[in-house]
Amino acid sequence: MSRRYSRIAEALCLAVACSFIVSQAVASTPITLGDAWGQVLQTNPSLMAGDRNVGIAEGERRQAGVIPNPELSWEVEDTRSATRTTTVQISQPIELGGKRGARIEMAERGIDSAAIGQEQLRNELRAEVVGAFQGALLAKMRQELAEQSQRLSERGVAVVDARVKAGKASALEASRARLQYEEVRLEAARARDQHINAMNQLLALIGASSTNGEPSLSGDVTDMPAIPSEVALLSRLDKVPQMRLARVEIDRQEAGIEVEKSRRIPDLTVSLGSQYSSADRERVNLVGLSMPLPLFDRNQGNVLAASRRADQARDLRNAAELRLRSEVQQAYQQWRTAQGAISGFEGGLLASADTALENTTRGFQMGKFGFIDVLDAQRTLIDVRSRYLQALGEALDAWVRLERIYGDLSAQADSY
């Protein structure tokens, strides 16, 4: 028995080990932006809930086309068996004035609205994924640059300590070096915290877990799509989901006007029945027509309200166009400004600041410069790197704002 239990234990250990290896392999697989977006498409509850809206609208469309049910009635006059009269009757309402067609038209516009609304939700979610994924890459770069600055500051402390021991520098310069190091160390700690928060935000968005360790991201924060020109973006503004949704809403409200107008015409009710008189012992067939007289209530209030809702929809469409046009223009200008700054930093400012610090540190070691010059060079490099990260962040923000409006810009590049 002990040998049997030992085999079972070995099998369990092997299964646990295999599971651990598989989980580690999955955790170590770099996640791309496409992977993150694919995960959101499969698991995001908001997107799944949005898909239900289309089914809801289709159900409303089916109900809008249903014919009213007939009504069966049974009536007894005089409860005495010898003189009672029993009536059985079936009534069928017949809709007049095009009510059914008007309801169907309005419900179909509801289906269009639900489909476009889902497309808009998908664009907004993709923008969030892009912002979270690229933001995590940016936070990682910020952490790496902060750690580089910390190492440079440590080097500066070591250099000035050596010169103090050699009697070639004052203790004040050593104090300045340590103060600079503490500032840089705190900045590095903040950068690490920001990177952790950015990764947690990304994992929460894509529905992943960090229990198996922090996953690695495959991508470059400086790799951004080619944004079309401002003229090209504005020329396609009418095709974005927000504008299409606004136009569909106008159509839906106008269909609502037709629904309310159709209700001004009363419906006709046709009745067929049979009446039996116990006193006369005779059966009489009944045929009837009934219709309300529209003397007072002609649905005039609902028609007016529907007309005002249609006017409101047109106003909201115009407001949406103005808002989106301004948003696109601001995002595009922000993109251009950020890209110009990024080009300047990558074109020489970063390298020049790094070279200046290296030369100043060497000159200080040789006694050509004071340590205040080294501190200035360090602060300049840190400032240049900080402004470079800020420019990347502004470019990312502009990219996300445009993606929220237009969707995947890289997939639409050929259509501009």
From TrEMBL:
Major localisation: membrane
Pfam families for the chain: OEP (PF02321)
Name of this protein: Outer membrane protein, cobalt-zinc-cadmium efflux system
Statement: the UniProt record of this protein carries the keyword Hydrolase: no
Coiled coil: 174-201
Keyword field contains Transmembrane: yes
PANTHER family linked: BLR4935 PROTEIN (PTHR30203:SF24), OUTER MEMBRANE CATION EFFLUX PROTEIN (PTHR30203)
Record keywords: Cell outer membrane, Coiled coil, Lipoprotein, Membrane, Palmitate, Signal, Transmembrane, Transmembrane beta strand
Annotated signal sequence range: 1-27
Similarity comment: family membership: Belongs to the outer membrane factor (OMF) (TC 1.B.17) family.
Molecular functions (GO terms): efflux transmembrane transporter activity
Top-rank taxon, per record: Bacteria
Species per Swiss-Prot/TrEMBL record: Pseudomonas sihuiensis
Gene Ontology CC, one term: membrane
